[in-house]
Amino acid sequence: MTANYKSKKCEELVNKIKECRANNNIEGMSVHANELKMLAEDIQDTYSIAAALFYMSMVYFMKGQHDKTLSLNMEILSICDLHDVPEYHVQTLNMMGIVYASISDFIAAISYLLKAYYFSLEHEELQYSYFPLNNIGALFQNLDIPDMALKYFLSSHEYKQKLQIAITGNDAIPVINIIAAYIKLNDFDEAKKWLQLYDKDYRQFESSAAAIEVAIQRIHLYKHDKNLKCMTPLLDELINLSEGIVNRNRYFKLLLEALEDCIELELKDYATRLLEELELMSEEVHDILLRQHLSGLKVKMTLKDYPDDDSYETLFQYYQKNENYRELEKSNTRQSLIIKIEQEEMMNEHRLILLNNARLLKNNELDPFTGIFNKAAFKQHVSEAVCDRSKDEYAALLMIDIDDFKNVNDTFGHYAGDQVILDVVGLLTKGNQSNVIAGRVGGDEFAVFFPSFYSLDYLYEKVENYLKAARKIIANDTAGIITISIGIYLTKQSEIYDEMFKKADNALYMAKRKGKNQYAVYAKPSDEDTHYASEAPLYSKSAEQFLPAIYKILNVDRYAENDLFAVLRLCLKALELKQAAIQIFDQNLTHNRCLFIDMNNQPEQSVTIIENNLKVLNNYQNRQCVVNDSQNEAIETTETAYRAWMQSLIVFDQQPLGMVTFYDEQLHAWNERELTILTIIADVLAPYIYYGSHE
């Protein structure tokens, strides 16, 4: 199984627990499991928390505290329902089956063991299926239903053989179980074949527990062959092992089997010794079936010893009645368990059908080439996510387009183009949280929806990583050629998908317009602006109508701040606005000289030195235009009392020189054409500022 511990210390503690378990050091297991739990909770390692609880439950089980074991098991399953911890999920289901079997709740036991088996089939990487199969066999074996026991023992063994896992000491007991089942079914020839296999391949790995288990099977076979010479030394060894046995219930059962053999062969001395040992142990054994079996054997032994006694007939009738009752109870139990197995099989089949239907539905939603949502499915899932989200968090819809993708296909071929698409999808989906939704909305166009996050820095870092990763894409000879453009729409409200899509697409257009290989942000308007989606243009002016006048004002051979104020004044009049600003960065980008004009005040113009917010300035990398049409302070640029502004970075020769900003109470009504005016003005100002203020 693959371990996913966050800390090396956690892994070391688990290894210590396993070592203590191998040495039956229960207290050591308990100490290390509690230490692991404290450490895992401190570092918030869910995988290690599940591991700690599992081994703590194992300690309780080994101490016979079944209620505490089951309580911890349920806690682990609750964790597994919320987090992906398949290793301890399946082991916990398996343990619950064992615990319920120990307290004689066989229906619950078979239910959990089958759940463990079906779960393991869905996680073949765990290579665990043979464990619950073997435990189901052991359950039937303990109930003296050997045909069912053999069925599951053989299935477990065959599954393990297919895995081609090297034989270890843990593999001896399952083979002994198969031998025992064949003996119970009186198939002694098959039992001897498996015993030969055991001696050849498994005996070298034999543990002390396995040695006792195989000894009792040899006793049964010697009894069948009436080979007392080989049988009696093994009986002596079995009786003398009493003090070193940890699993008292199991040892008690083996002694019962040996006693039954001795009674049938009339080995009175050995029968007496075994009976004395069993009566001494009976107070430690809480299994009702085992104690009933002992009572029946005592009666059987008395009948053998005193066949002419006056009470013989009464004892015989009692014994016969008891045996008949046991057989009836065994038959009823067998039938109940078979019904439960069939129910679990039907439930699992039904669950698999539902999973397959869900898988088919998902496949219909997926783009067949990229494996992410197609356009229709993306819209549906985003619409649902928007309705469910919290208004205290941000959401962002990203539109992504591969720059000049047609040229990639034309130059490098469609195979390279296909690889580029897959690589872009890979970078857009890698490392995302589970609630992030990705979709293909066009041939080389994609969308990603982040339904909830608190920090814009988180989003901008993700977007920057997307841009950087795209530039590293290598498909055939495309190294360094592939770039992407990204449009971002931010919101805190539940909105109609089509409007969100439109805004994100507008932002993508801005990123493309400014030269590609960058991102642009368009922020959602405030709640007060209910008509923000209006397509009616507020302004009739266009850049082409007043650009000639701007060029007349600006002369790169004669830089003057008054000329910049004149440009701002001209633009404000043309656009029917009142406030604007040009910020000119110093060469270290630490401060800016802000030229501000407000046509509502006197004097209209002012100049101030402002310290740059480098954190905000970094957010402008690879994008040049930001629109803020809300009171949302999270779109950080400059602190201002104005409710709405539009801002563009002034860039020349890839060097940021400053920013130009327009303030407008009705920015929500700007259409796409007006949005380009600002970026055009920034382009016109760039060479003037570069050659003027930086000379």
List the helices and strands and how they pair.
Layout: H1 8-22, H2 26-42, H3 46-62, H4 66-82, H5 86-102, H6 106-122, H7 130-142, H8 146-163, H9 172-184, H10 188-202, H11 208-225, H12 228-240, H13 248-265, H14 268-281, H15 288-305, H16 312-365, H17 375-388, E1 394-402, H18 405-412, H19 414-429, E2 437-440, E3 445-453, H20 456-471, E4 484-491, H21 497-513, E5 519-523, H22 543-553, H23 561-575, E6 579-585, E7 591-598, E8 605-611, H24 614-618, E9 625-628, E10 645-652, E11 655-663, H25 672-693
Parallel strand pairs: 4-5, 5-9
Antiparallel strand pairs: 1-3, 1-4, 2-3, 6-7, 6-11, 7-8, 9-10, 10-11
Give an account of the 3D structure.
With 695 residues, the chain is α+β, with helices and mostly antiparallel strands. Among the domains are: 1-128, Tetratricopeptide repeat domain (Serine Threonine Protein Phosphatase 5, Tetratricopeptide repeat, Alpha Horseshoe), CATH 1.25.40; 375-523, Reverse transcriptase/Diguanylate cyclase domain (Alpha-Beta Plaits, 2-Layer Sandwich); 543-693, GAF domain (Beta-Lactamase, 2-Layer Sandwich), CATH 3.30.450.40. Helices cover 60% and strands 11% of the residues. Strand 6 and strand 7 (591-598) form a beta hairpin. The longest helix is centred in the middle third of the chain and has 54 residues, at 312-365. The model is unreliable at 523-541 and 630-642 (pLDDT under 50). InterPro entries: Diguanylate_Cyclase, GAF-like_dom_sf, GGDEF_dom, Nucleotide_cyclase, Rev_trsase/Diguanyl_cyclase, TPR-like_helical_dom_sf.
